[in-house]
Amino acid sequence: MKITREEVEHVARLSRLALEETEIDALTGQMDQLLGYVEKLNELDTEGIVPTAHAVPMENAFRADEVKPSIGLERALQNAPQSEESCFVVPKIIE
Amino acid sequence: MHSRYEVVIGLEVHVQLTTKTKIFCGCSTAFGSHPNSQTCPVCLGLPGALPVLNQQVVEYAIRAGLATNCQIAPRSIFARKNYFYPDLPKGYQISQFELPITEHGWLDIDKEAGEKKRIGITRIHMEEDAGKLLHGGNSGSRVDLNRACTPLLEVVSEPDMRSADEAIEYLKQLHQIVVYLGICDGNLEEGSFRCDANVSLRPFGQVELGTRAELKNINSFRFIKQAIEYEVERQAELLDDGGKVVQETRLFDADTGVSRSMRGKEEAHDYRYFPDPDLVPLVVDEAWISRVRAELPEMPLVKRQRYVEQFELPDYDAGVLSAERGVAEYFEALVDLHAQPKICSNWVMGEVMRALKENGSTIIDCPVSPELLAGLLKRIDDNTISNKIAKTVFEEIWQTGKSADQVIEEKGLKQVSDSGAIEAILNEVIAANMGQFEELKAGKDKLTGFFVGQVMKLSKGKANPGMVNQLIQKKLSE
């Protein structure tokens, strides 16, 4: 086993996922299997091969620096669960 | 102060670029607009929206790289930096991690006694800014996403600085460069140039670095100095008491002069960078780099040296004139029209800068153009007016925009070089001050100044001072 319960809990917390104890056990096994599968790639000799950054063999998709109309305040906020004075409202952030 | 420890400082500067639009969408980057009015599906992070790179951002990044002696990467990629925060709508920031656009540069900063010190620049990469959180609402925190997706360059230095003063020198020079390049407005209050400082201490002679604290988002050179000095004290006291520095982010409060911990250590950052599949790799070829290089303006330090060598100006003058691109361009235009660099320098550093300051104006809006000022300097040079009268004329040009010749004509300020007219005034002065004149004759030389002064006064400053002097000498030998 390479993946530990602690690692699963850590990843879950980074992803803001609340997992049940039983789910953690199940996921620990599953993630270990997944990584074991990916591990197979290490058998290949990749010496001298440039890492693939993109699946499509394409480069330099640019946009000119020209202003396009924005969608407008109303539409920007239309799906916000909560808004106030033109702003999205989120639970209070205390630093 | 704490001679037991060596201070080690590395800086990360976020330079906000002056593009018209955001880095990955066509929304305007104008500052101070109504909250959330400059947003679209891309910068709101709505599902399915795809980012497209603003070419101007790449252009600016290449400029910054070349001006800081970096190597431009032939191929670079964008990565997602993952973290949760309400000002980051996608849950990740598009940045560069492996393969940034430019790396391995340096800047030489001034030390005391004319010495230079080289500060390494690890990398400069492109990224998007986050939105703005506004605290203090009743129901919760408010989020304005106008700033989200605004283009930034992050300039990361090597931990090469050994004092707050060195850090400030480096920052000032970097600031000057990005403003010179025309890629940043340099406005610290509006957050166009933000600095994070990594500060650590280590006993002298130790090679490995001590644990560092990161001071976040400080927006004035003065506060950066205060924050670093406070942090050095804090860590030295901790170490002196046998304690340990915790790696953490600290926020400096300029009002109290104290910093406090922002995020607990248990929230150790784990950004899980990976290449952003929404953006294709960026390839910059030699032709592109050469073109940008050819279009770079002359950098302030090079200008400064050229002013000393070509114009034979004192280093002080050269430093003042080259510090701001607008001032340098004004000065160079003036010298083109009036080939007396030192006189031009005196006027730009003197009258022009004084008037700009008094009127709260910048060189770009200076009502006395280089052409108008050159016209004035010509009239001093050919003795039409004295230096003193020239200052009055300058004021008048500033107010009215008229040429020097017009002002001199209208106000009758032409210098009197008619020896008969000056002699008449001098005779008057001598008659009124016979006693002093006898003393002067008897050898009290310093009274010459008194007589010149009196003649200048009676002529309302218009008498040619050289001629007044000559005439006095003539009278004495009679």
Account of the protein in words:
The complex is a heterodimer of chains A (95) and B (478). Chain A is mostly helical and 95 residues long. Chain A has a domain of 39 residues: Histone, subunit A (Orthogonal Bundle). Helices cover 36% and strands 8% of the residues of chain A. Chain A is built from three helices and three strands; from the N terminus they run H-H-E-H-E-E. Chain A has a two-stranded antiparallel sheet. In chain A, a hairpin with a 2-residue loop joins strand 2 and strand 3. The longest helix of chain A has 19 residues. Chain A is flat and about 55 Å long. Chain A starts with a helix and ends in a 5-residue tail after the last strand. The model of chain A has no long low-confidence stretch (mean pLDDT 88). By secondary structure, chain B is α+β, with helices and mostly antiparallel strands. Chain B has three domains: 284 residues, no CATH class; 114 residues, no CATH class; 59 residues, Arc Repressor Mutant, subunit A, CATH 1.10.10.410. Chain B has 16 helices and 17 strands. A nine-stranded mixed beta sheet of chain B has the order 3-7-8-11-1-12-13-14-15. In chain B, strand 7 and strand 8 form a beta hairpin. The longest helix of chain B has 20 residues. The relative contact order of chain B is 0.09. The model of chain B has no long low-confidence stretch (mean pLDDT 90). Chains A and B meet through strand 1, helix 3 and strand 3 of A and strand 2, helix 2, strand 10 and strand 17 of B.
